[in-house]
Amino acid sequence: MSSILTNSSAMVALQTLKSINSDLSKVQSEISTGKSVGSAKDNSALWAISKVMESDVQGFKSISESLSLGESTIAVARQGAETVTDLLTEIKGKIVAAQEENVDRDKIQTDIDALSQQIGSVVGAAQFNGLNLLSGTDDLNILSSLDRGENGQVTAANITIARQDLSTDAGVYGTGTALSANAVASGAAVSNAGNVEAITFTDSADMSGETFDITVAGSSLSFAGADFGAITEEAAIDQIAGAINALGLEGVTAARNGSDLELTSTRAFEDVAVDFSGSTVTDDTVAIGERAENVTFSTVANVNEGDGYRITVGSDVATYIAGKGETFEDVANGLKAAIDSAGIEGLTTLVTTDDTGAQVLKIDNDSATPIATFNAVGAAGGEASGGLFGLDDIDVSTNGGADAALANIEVLIQNSIDGAAEFGSAQGRIEIQSEFVGKLTDSLKTGIGTLVDADMEEASARLQALQVQQQLGVQALSIANQAPQSILSLFR
Hints:
This protein is of the alpha+beta class. The chain contains 8 helices and 18 strands. It has a 4-stranded antiparallel β-sheet, with helices on one face. Strands 8-7-11-12 form a 4-stranded antiparallel β-sheet.
């Protein structure tokens, strides 16, 4: 049936041409924009995923900038810490030179003071954009990643950089919780007298038949009856004491007190072992204790930032306030430096570890008079001392000061080395993270491109095919529109 009112063929041809034109328009859009999914109407699911990933890419660009800023800041701090280490090493050389007595210690002290001031300048200048990691104790958080969970929630991840305080600040002693139980003094005074152990002889009028074996501080003596002859016990003790004194043992002397042989040791930081056996005495093995008094620190308590400890020695008070991450070893070394800086005549100090693992600060008095006051206290809530606390007080103008400075400078050098090493490790980690973020960003971009980018080879081929289909569609529509005209021939 033919109709001049309804041309079904033309309608089909028109719909086909519209479809071809729509596909052609889409392909042309892909070619012009380079994307197969340019908006949500093209493919809402892929478009949504790509937009989330694009936001992550933008975030990682900001993270890359944050890492670059952090790396630069840490590089400055690391260089500063390394420079401080070099300057401290120079100071150590000066201190070693001051150990000789026939040098001009005043000029050496002038050089040390100048180097100390230079260290202060380096620490103050080691800042980047106003941030100085060589001063203070607050941590620095550097944004390092954005972690997206399965539920779509995003959390920020940071690289935490601990400041390495290389200042010489004394700190501020707190008024918080009492910590005196963590630092126990061995006595109430610091004596300058030696410690004494006595060996008691049994009464004997004739020592000619007696024998004795004696070991004092690793040196041995033996006495047979013939060495004494028919002498009294007191005379034999005098002979034994004289023989011990003749050994020339440092800090060890022997003398008779009635029927006792008294052994005295003035060794500051060392016990003296004594083994005495003989027929007129009970076998006696003793140890003459070191002369130094001790402050023993807890093996179970923790050291928190701001914990302060004070040791009173006579009229002088030594104070140290712990910083973040420090231990009782750091506290003991800090108090040692504080005591040494007081310049108390005849006083020497030593930090060691006892058999239980406790840190012990030993204080010896070799002056002409005893020190009547000695105690230790502690309190929380203070402001930490600097990592180079005690540097400004190094004084090599005296023998005692030069000796103390040699031990203290080793602690300061180690502190600066630890600080530089921490910064170096952190800088290396940031470099690795920065490289990873760059690669991750590239991978995300590639993934986004896989989802939404057009295949240009395919689009080009489709364009040519659709252009041909468009031409055919136009011709088909033209033919369909001419069909009703053939009906006019019926009316001729």
